[in-house]
Design brief:
- Helix content is 52%, strand content 10%.
- The strands form two sheets. It has an eight-stranded parallel barrel, surrounded by seven helices.
- The N and C termini lie far apart (62 Å).
- The protein is of the alpha/beta class.
- The radius of gyration is 21 Å and the shape is globular.
- It has helices at residues 4-9, 15-24, 28-37, 77-89, 104-114, 123-135, 143-156, 169-178, 187-199, 204-207, 209-219, 240-259, 276-286, 307-320, 340-360, 364-378, 382-388, 393-398, 412-422, and strands at 40-43, 54-57, 63-68, 94-97, 119-121, 160-163, 222-225, 263-267, 292-295, 325-327.
Amino acid sequence: MTTQIIEAKKGNITAEIEYVAQKEGIDKELLREKVAQGRVVILKNNQRSNCIPVGVGEGLTVKINANIGTSNEKSTIEEELQKVKVIEANEADVLMDLSTGKYIDETRKQIIAATHLPIGTVPMYQAGKEALDEYQDIAKLSKDKLFSDIEKQCKDGIDFITVHCGVTKFVVDQLEKQGRVTDIVSRGGSMLACWVKETGKENPLYEYYDELLEIVRDYDVTLSLGDGLRPGCTADAGDRAQVAETLVLGELVKRARDFGVQSMVEGPGHVPLNKIPAMIETIKVLTDYAPLYVLGPLVTDIAPGYDHITSAIGGTLAALHGADFLCYVTPSEHLGLPDARQVREGIIASKIAAHSADLARGNKQAIERDRLMSVARKNLDWTEQQKYAIDKCVFESLKDSKPCTMCGEYCSMKIYNKYFSEV
């Protein structure tokens, strides 16, 4: 089975490359070259017919991802499917299913069927949860069980997977020697670090990396090489453990490209504003300019309830300096699972960050969109202003004092208007 990067290296422009080039307004031959180099990935499982491909990487608009997923404590499949509708209505580019509750397989299949967006997962969540449920010990998780879950999710139609291959014995040792304020905050990273320490063995995702590549290549699933040791507070940003893991990820990017597998790299995390430019540029250099997917970065640790704002500040600067893909952060980050309203707020904040960076990077589509909004404002043309606004619901809900029809109960302006009408 072929992949986008294999075809691009052969000089072939696939239907997906042609579609992304047209949507982004760039030359399709230039895009093919960047896919061949591994500097752009096209997110689409070759077995998934209902997915509209999304390009991520150098020279393209900054993309955003929205996370959803069940847990044992909160949410149901129905609630997560409602969030999918909110994600689509507010035009996120991609979503991830991070479910750890009951019926993980069924949740994933229903989400895949419910949306045309590319979908990502973290297979370690399912494998680790099921090992803990059965044995109450993460060390009892077998390599075969982990790889079986990876293949199952690829077969279901998942378009990209986060795999924490860089949490190696050496990297965990570096972490222990230096110490940290917040240790490991990545769920997948902490599971694998515990597994490595308890078993004394090498991380199977690293030791059997070629086997992993064989699985994902069959489905053209993109590897998102997870930052299991991302800093969980500003004090830990840029420490030895983070850099050690990034060096490993650079090695794995090259091996994936040689194998004909698309890959991107995940980045921090919590990072003070002054450290973001150098950190992003260093990660890009160490990973040979693979597409970079960042969580935030959050620029301060003291704003619970407002981390969609702290991440938007960091995400704008990170994207200006080379990040390609922003993972949204909701107001409930560090507090609990987001509801549908908070999902919407996270998407809007992240979209503002992505567009601001596109504008500063000189993207022609972003510049034209701002210009057209300005013309509409000059002409007092509210219909055109709504067309170019990131949050179209503001216009929908204020116009004629009618409730928003775009986001239902989760429109922030509808909630705002209802509250003040009752006060």
